[in-house]
Design brief:
alpha/beta; 14 helices; six-stranded mixed β-sheet; disordered N terminus; five-stranded mixed β-sheet
Length: 342
């Protein structure tokens, strides 16, 4: 009799276990199959309130490229890539745009680069006529300001190195990016290293007195500052089809942007609520990449070199501790598939 009771208990336990496994499998299949339903896929995307950070998502939204990929996109504005990454890692965002500086936060591989967006050419070292400085070499012993950890510091490092100087040869000041222009305009420093749209503040305030010493295009063999669209490794693994859909939509937008810059200015102004003239001032601040640019760079291996040069800047400034293969944080295969299926 005891054996019979034990048998019934054992069968009951097995039955419960099977039901639980079936329910769990059903839930897993439900999550996996959400990408294959006709219902639009909801995603949250972070962007920055500037031309580089907002242009592709603004186009994809307005021109229906997200809709073509069956994506229901909600856009969230951020003022720096660090904040966007925090929101993405916490699960509030699925995708985000980041500029150069925030790339040091993804070298550990927790987030992956999906799409290189642009190569910056807006970083500039500026002085004024009253400072009486005519070259980078003449910065020796002078007061120079930049925002540490940003592309401005990266630009300054390369320029000084090429002039056989170091940061120890100047009086280097760390200032918030929003205050750099004011420091130069108000004669608080002799020079600054900054980028658009902040250089435009100087052009407007002292149009006859500013002087450009150099810009990043002069050092393309040494430094490449790339902006990117990213997602977490976890999200990419769980939602590969959604990631490819998002990647295709952004690539289509990037192609449209290249040939329609002034229309894109209006779209960015509408999205960010920045005035059109200030947005327009940013359109020459970068090389705006297209799908054909990325395909060529991928095939030649140049794409990896962009990020290798970028990582060297982080190593110099000690924002990154170890030199790691950039393939640790670039989702190359996903990009390749999206490019081949546009």
């Amino acid at each position: 009799m005891k054996q019979l009771i034990l048998l019934f208990i054992l069968l009951a336990v097995i039955g419960i276990s099977c039901n639980n496994n079936q329910n769990n499998n059903s839930e897993e299949n439900k999550e996996i199959n959400t990408e294959n339903t006709d219902k639009p896929i909801k995603i949250n995307v972070g962007y920055l309130a500037e031309f580089a950070g907002a242009s592709a998502v603004a186009i994809a939204k307005e021109k229906g490229y997200f809709e073509e990929e069956n994506l229901d996109v909600e856009l969230f504005e951020f003022f720096n890539g660090h904040a966007a990454i925090i929101s993405m890692v916490s699960g509030e965002l699925d995708f985000a745009y980041i500029g150069h500086a925030a790339h040091n936060l993804i070298i550990d591989g927790k987030a992956q680069i999906l799409i290189p967006n642009a190569i910056s050419k807006g970083e500039t070292i500026m002085t004024t006529k009253w400072a009486n400085i005519n070259s980078i070499e003449e910065l020796k012993g002078r007061t120079v300001a930049t925002h540490f950890g940003t592309s401005g510091e990266a630009m300054l490092y390369i320029a000084l190195t090429n002039a056989n100087l170091s940061s120890k040869d100047i009086n280097l000041i760390n200032a918030n990016i929003t205050n750099l222009a004011n420091l130069l305009i108000n004669k608080k420093v002799d020079a600054i290293s900054t980028w658009e749209p902040y250089t435009s503040e100087i052009f407007t305030a002292i149009p006859n007195d500013y002087k450009i010493l150099t810009n990043i295009t002069h050092y393309s063999n040494d430094i490449i500052l790339t902006s990117s669209f990213i997602s977490t490794s976890n999200y990419i693994q769980r939602h590969p089809e959604t990631v490819e859909k998002f990647t295709r939509a952004i690539l289509k937008a990037m192609d449209y942007r290249k040939d329609n810059l002034y229309e894109t200015v209006a779209l960015v102004s509408k999205l960010t609520d920045n005035d059109i003239e200030s947005v327009k001032a940013e359109i020459d601040s970068a090389i705006w990449l297209t799908s054909s640019n990325l395909k060529e760079a991928y095939q030649s291996g140049e794409l990896l070199k962009w990020y290798e040069k970028q990582q060297k800047i982080f190593l110099y400034s000690e924002l990154a501790k170890n030199d790691v293969p950039v393939t640790n944080y670039i989702e190359l295969e996903m990009l390749k598939n999206a490019l081949n299926n546009l």
